[in-house]
Amino acid sequence: MNEAIIFDLDGVIVSTDHYHYRAWKEIADREHVPFDEERNGLLRGVSREKSLEILLELAPRTYSAEEKKQLAEEKNKIYRQLLQELTPADILPGVLTWIDEAKEKGLRIAIGSSSKNTDFILERIGLSDTFDAVVTGADVEHSKPAPDIFLLAAERLGAGPEQCWVIEDAPAGIVAAKAAGMKTIGVGEFVQNSGADRWALTLGEAKL
Ligand code: B16
Ligand code: MG
């Protein structure tokens, strides 16, 4: 049976980093928590709730579970507003070629993303009907770096883990894919030394 490809979303298909940053920064400033682009890098690929935990590590006070829930909701509201700016022109270089070539070769393709905004993002960039399966943080209890998202994506594709290639931009995603027993292609500077089986600076330069 042919191999399958599971694409991460944020950082591989489209870059939403700066939107996440702008939304988290607004929350951080309001709460007097130091936060910059470097700290934002720590949130790459991990869930919204875990991202908030990391952000609040530098907070001057502690927060109740209810307060955290509210902050995460507020962040998402700001983020969703910013996502309105996304268009198909934001699809990262090389993505459409990868999708076309996979389809030509008869490979099944999926999205495996921690983002609970996946459906909205795919809609904004015009790729809602492109993938054979879409698995997000909303479908599993444990998000990346746990393997659950990728294992469910493989199951929905009808592929065994050993047949799957995962394309990821985040260390948490590479750890998750390896824990799932899958082959990995790291894309971008954040996963250059993360132990991915293959690596390229951009998806356009990456090879299966
Ligand atoms: P949301 P990915 C991840 O998406 C992002 O990289 C990460 O920064 C974000 O915190 C996470 O989704 C959750 O996103 O708040 O939209 O549910 O890289 O796994 O596609
Ligand atoms: Mg990512």
Can you walk through the features of this model?
Helix 1 crosses helix 4. The chain is of the alpha/beta class and 208 residues long. A six-stranded parallel β-sheet has the order 3-2-1-4-5-6, with helices on both faces. The protein is built from eight helices and six strands. It has two domains: 130 residues, HAD superfamily/HAD-like (Rossmann fold, 3-Layer(aba) Sandwich), CATH 3.40.50; 67 residues, DNA polymerase, domain 1 (Orthogonal Bundle), CATH 1.10.150.240.
Based on secondary structure, the structural category is alpha/beta
Bound molecules: 1,6-di-O-phosphono-beta-D-glucopyranose, magnesium ion
Helical fraction equals 25-40%
Rg of Cα set: 17 Å
| Count of beta strands | 6
- For the biggest β-sheet, the strand order reads 3-2-1-4-5-6
Mean pLDDT over the residues: 96
What is the H/E string?
EHHHHHEHEHEHEE
Largest sheet: 6 strands, parallel
CATH topology of the largest domain: Rossmann fold
For the termini, the CA-CA separation is: 16 Å
Principal-axis shape: globular
Q: Which CATH architecture of the largest domain is right?
A: 3-Layer(aba) Sandwich
Our count of helices gives: 8
**Which ranges are low-confidence, i.e. pLDDT below 50, for 5 or more consecutive residues?**
none
Beta-strand share of residues: 5-15%
Total tally of structural domains: 2
Spell out the CATH superfamily of the largest domain. HAD superfamily/HAD-like
Q: For this structure, what is the CATH class of the largest domain?
A: Alpha Beta
